[in-house]
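Check this:
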Amino acid sequence: MSKQAIHSNEAPAAIGTYSQAVKAGGLVFLSGQIPLVPATMEFVAGDFEARTRQVFDNLSAVAAAAGGSLDQVVKLTVFLTDLDNFATVNKVMEDYFDKPFPARAAVGVASLPKGADVEADAILVL
């Protein structure tokens, strides 16, 4: 099996020793995205909903670079520093995903990179 690193300039550059995504066979494993604006590498302005939308915009850009889209996501993991924001994540997801929705886990965590309050990663099938 071979693996291929995926990169998009439309998503934040990796801030560590990882690829934005890795394609292996028909699967694409998207690394976690936080609400960074790619051009500035700063958090998007606005409230939690705006930050969540930026996370999904970033995931979408990487999925597109791999030749796919969020419609092909089969597994999504969302990390939240405050689980009270879970309802907002659900609301935003309705704008990015169609039924059948991907399998999902939501995990409460103590902290995330750069002080983010939301992060998500995904697996998609091409």
Observations:
- The chain has two helices and eight strands.
- The chain has one domain: 3-125.
- The two ends are 16 Å apart (CA to CA).
